[in-house]
Amino acid sequence: MLLKKLITGLVGASVILACYWLGLFISDIFHLAVPGAVCGLMMLLILLFVLPSIKDSVAFAAQPLLSHMSLLFIPVVMGVGVYWTNITDNITSLAIAVVVTTCLVLGIQAKLTVWLMADDESETPSNIDEKCQ
Amino acid sequence: MDLQTFTNMIVWLVVTVCCYGIALACAKKLRLNPLCHPIVVTVALVSLLLVVSDTQVTQFQSYTYLLHWLLGPATVALAVPIHNQWDRVKKLGVNGWISIAFGGVFAPVLACFTLYIFDAPMTLQLTMMLKSVSTPFAMSTADAIGGVGELAAVFVIVTGIVGAIMSDSLFRLLKISNANAQGLALGTVAHAIGTAKAIQKGEQVAAMAVLAMCITGIVTVLILPPLFSLFIAV
Which of A101, B113, B152, B199 could form a disulfide with B138 if both were Cys (CB 3.0 to 4.6 A apart)? Predict the structure, then answer.
């Protein structure tokens, strides 16, 4: 059982890594503007459609990477200290750019969606049910 | 690699993972309050330890390079949730696409325009274009469009936290109860952190948020770099 899990994980991890390296390679060789990791993602996506049988092992190997992705950002986010003066020098404009526009677009987009999807109101009751639980 | 460096690598990797573990426990305890997002808490704890141990940030980054490297394969792994959403993508309909396109275009463009009006440096303006795609996408694309990965990560995380915190009062103020509207707006504008918030609002909101997040991320990342290289070439 454990051995089976191990093999599933290894197969999945190999597929992900192969797509990653192939993505880097292709992005580099063809001087694509799209980053290598994203090329790899597109390739894995295509592969999942072509070979649905590998889905289980890929999903198994992807699970820990996806659910703990926050951990992988730590080294980079720590490096923001280097750009600290860039941030403090422009703090007003950055604050407006991030806070105000985020709220504005969030509200307007939601309003727009309500207006566009006026016919889909039937979806709402199930949501209310869940909220009441 | 000498023994000293190797020990440092192991120690800092373990320390970072432990800090992250504490951060996860905090997030769980405080019922997923967006302000105590695991990244915020982990960064605070690690910074404290760096100061106490008198370690340079650049040294820390080289010791924990393994984590940074794993971000590449993790980005590739995002194909799995996108593949899971495929049936929903097909059923989304024109209205859904219009909604996502609206948020996906206006959130970054308005933010950049704000920086442009305030005459902020070009690097900041370019980096701001990535504010509403999830962090792995933003970081891998930052270099390609002349932005800075570190800043992109911070803008993205702050945007997500703001979106998640403000969404409740915003939706109440505007009287928006439609699950699709809430989900699409949160996923498009506030990516993964907004999606985490959406999960608390119910299954339909969560599904729509995941869908919107995936589409915004992929489309932004595929369109922006070619657009910018064209821009630079002209």
Answer: B152
